[in-house]
Write a structure and sequence with these properties.
Blueprint lengths: L1 E7 L5 H13 L4 E8 L9 H8 L2 E2 L3 H7 L2 E4 L8 H9 L5 E3 L7 H13 L4 E2 L8 H4 L6 E8 L3 H4 L1 H11 L3 E6 L7 E6 L4 E6 L7 E6 L4 E4 L5 H15 L6 H17 L7 E2 L2
Parallel strand pairs: 1-2, 1-4, 2-3, 4-5, 5-6, 7-10
Antiparallel strand pairs: 7-11, 8-9, 8-13, 9-10, 11-12
Length: 278
């Protein structure tokens, strides 16, 4: 059995609650989350020690211990990517396959630094929104896309990753500029690509499901709404990554996604003006 270590801001959060059982099932028990570290206790839920006791996972007192005793590593803190540089430093120096939860980094500079550290120490690493693995999205023809319109719920800061990730996976990394075209309550971003193609992301209320509408150069259109179990597909991909050390997502795509999020937040300060991407 291969041992997986969790490294988190606090352990009582949705991803940490779900991943252990899902990973065990997807790997047929060959991989188990065995160790965990939390920088702090949850302010509204279980303490780290209570969480570990309930999950049958050993709580360790340092990131160093988790890295040393685990075969594979998962850095969580999904809603606090500003902590990923701190939480990931030792994992990325370990040489052990490491998954860093969405959103990978708070900005482009940090994303590049994380990948540089991983490359220096030969550590396989990747990050992704689970929406990338929705079968309804993966079955889409990426050739000849002229325009994509994406809609979904949640705030731009925490949920734009789930719209931008599928767009970049379909349209590539050549985004060149962004323009904020929404409102405070309904954020929206226009993304311009180098060859004139465009995509929009739109955030509405929680009643709005994730949906992609694609228009092709041929004039035909396609609407895709992820109703498949994309988390199951994501976890199976994660298990495969641990087995092979081969990331499913190119680092260039992840950097492009983080760049769009960072500059999208900047664009919100000056709506209806193009902001060039580095």
């Amino acid at each position: 059995m291969k041992k997986i270590g969790f490294i988190d801001y606090f352990l009582d959060e949705w991803h940490a609650n779900k991943y252990p059982e899902w990973i065990s099932s997807a790997s047929e028990g060959k991989m188990q989350v065995t160790y965990a570290y939390g920088k702090k206790d949850s302010e509204s839920g279980l303490s780290n020690s209570e969480w570990c006791a309930g999950k049958g996972i050993k709580l360790l007192s340092s990131i160093e211990e988790v890295v040393e005793r685990s075969d594979y590593l998962i850095v969580l803190s999904p809603d606090n990517p500003e902590l990923h540089a701190e939480l990931s430093e030792l994992p990325l120096r370990s040489g052990k396959p490491t998954y860093i939860d969405k959103t990978f980094a708070p900005d482009r500079r940090t994303a590049l630094q994380l990948f540089e550290t991983a490359g220096t120490y030969g550590t396989p690493v990747y990050s992704s929104s689970a929406l990338r693995f929705a079968s309804e999205y993966r079955e889409l023809d990426a050739q000849g896309i002229e325009m994509v319109c994406s809609v979904g719920p949640g705030s731009f800061e925490h949920y734009s990753i789930h719209q931008i990730e599928p767009i970049i996976s379909l349209m590539g990394c050549e985004a060149r500029r962004v323009m904020f075209i929404g409102t405070e309550k309904s954020p929206a971003l226009l993304i311009g690509f180098a060859d004139g193609r465009q995509a929009t992301i739109n955030h509405f209320g929680w009643e709005c499901p994730f949906t992609l509408t694609i228009n092709y150069e041929s004039g035909s259109a396609k609407v895709a709404q992820p109703k498949s179990d994309f988390f199951d597909a994501f976890i199976r991909n994660l298990v495969s990554f641990f087995e092979t050390g081969e990331p499913a997502v190119d680092a260039k795509e992840t950097v492009a996604i983080i760049t769009i999020i960072e500059y999208g937040l900047k664009a919100a300060r000056t709506p209806y003006q193009w902001i060039e991407l580095p």
